[in-house]
């Protein structure tokens, strides 16, 4: 497999990142993960805008190479023989001597990879089970996909310890904010509720689902999700660029709704699949 590292296509086994790279040393960087299919990148502009917002937040200078990122990903698709796959961009501040100050940082590290992946269709959706953990999110970092991903990793570890697939993170007020890898939606009393800006990552797929739901006549609410709201929800599902929609049929050892994938989740999943197949790229 070829990867793209700092302006060059190289074999994965030959790709080398300096030991003094701040991404390795401190998690000082950003990443984006995207779906690639049929020679197109799903919602590329939204992913690019989110990464640029993260760069501005971290005080990283504009990167000229970003202008040709989409071209690089499609070149990797050809080189690696990928039909459907997952593209991942990793950007670090670069190399520096030991210490927290970024003032003497050298050139940034820019890595792009692409691997084959089989994306499930709506008819093949499987419900998962989750737990609400005590792992906290860290505003304002929650608004960006930084390389500091320990909260998500710890939440997933809590889930695996509990014998389920997913763990939910909370804020200081104990509101449920997001899953270890995805945004959370709850269907409650004919409303679609999801944590709002500042509480959860502004997910690309999350935004699409909100648009689909509003066009379909569902009432959408961006606000806090209490454990009580989740406990009483008729349906819960997660969204992400890779998984699309993932139904949650069990939470904290209890069934969600009927314990089966609900009608709203199925309908939104069908609409999202249609969006992807009809030019959502």
Based on the model shown, name its key terms.
15 strands; six-stranded antiparallel β-sheet; 30% strand; 7 helices
Q: Mind explaining what this structure looks like?
A:
- By secondary structure, this protein is of the alpha+beta class.
- It has helices at residues 22-26, 44-58, 69-79, 150-161, 204-215, 227-232, 263-277, and strands spanning 2-5, 8-11, 29-37, 40-41, 84-92, 109-116, 128-136, 166-170, 176-179, 183-188, 191-194, 219-222, 235-240, 244-251, 254-255.
- The strands form two sheets. Strands 7, 8, 9, 10, 11, 12, 13, 14 and 15 form a nine-stranded mixed sheet that branches.
- The longest helix is centred in the N-terminal third of the chain and has 15 residues, at 44-58.
- 37% of the residues are buried.
Report the C-alpha radius of gyration, rounded: 19 Å
Largest sheet: 9 strands, mixed
Distance between the termini: 24 Å
Q: Please state the structural category.
A: alpha+beta
Count of individual helical segments = 7
The strand count comes to: 15
Which residues sit in consecutive blocks of at least 5 with pLDDT less than 50? none
Proportion of residues in β-strands = 25-35%
Which bin fits the share of residues in helices? 25-40%
* Mean of residue pLDDT values: 94
Order of SSEs: EEHEEHHEEEHEEEEHEHEEEH
Q: Categorize the overall geometry.
A: globular
């Amino acid at each position: 497999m070829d990867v793209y590292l700092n302006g060059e296509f190289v074999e994965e086994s030959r790709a080398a990142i300096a030991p003094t790279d701040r991404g390795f040393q401190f998690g000082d960087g950003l990443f984006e993960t995207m779906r690639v299919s049929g020679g197109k990148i799903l919602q590329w502009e939204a992913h690019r805008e989110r990464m640029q917002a993260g760069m501005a937040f971290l005080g990283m200078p504009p990167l000229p190479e970003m202008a040709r990122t989409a071209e690089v990903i499609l070149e990797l698709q050809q080189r690696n023989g990928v039909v459907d796959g997952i593209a991942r961009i990793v950007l670090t501040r670069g190399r520096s001597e030991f210490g927290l100050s970024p003032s003497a940082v050298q050139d940034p590290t820019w890595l792009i990879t692409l691997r084959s992946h089989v994306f499930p269709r709506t008819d093949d959706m499987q419900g998962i089970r989750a737990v609400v953990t005590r792992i906290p999110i860290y505003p304002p970092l929650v608004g960006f996909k930084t390389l500091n991903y320990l909260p998500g990793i710890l939440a997933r570890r809590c889930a695996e310890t509990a014998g389920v697939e997913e763990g939910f993170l909370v804020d200081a007020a104990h509101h449920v904010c997001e899953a270890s890898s995805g945004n959370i939606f709850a269907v409650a009393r004919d409303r679609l509720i999801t944590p709002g800006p500042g509480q959860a990552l502004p997910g690309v797929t999350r935004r699409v689902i909100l648009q689909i739901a509003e066009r379909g006549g569902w009432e959408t609410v961006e606000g806090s999700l209490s454990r009580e709201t989740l406990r009483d929800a008729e349906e819960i599902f997660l969204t992400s660029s890779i998984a699309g929609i993932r139904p949650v049929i069990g939470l904290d050892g209890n069934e969600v709704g009927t314990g089966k994938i609900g009608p709203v989740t199925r309908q939104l999943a069908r609409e999202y699949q249609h969006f992807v197949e009809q030019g959502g790229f």
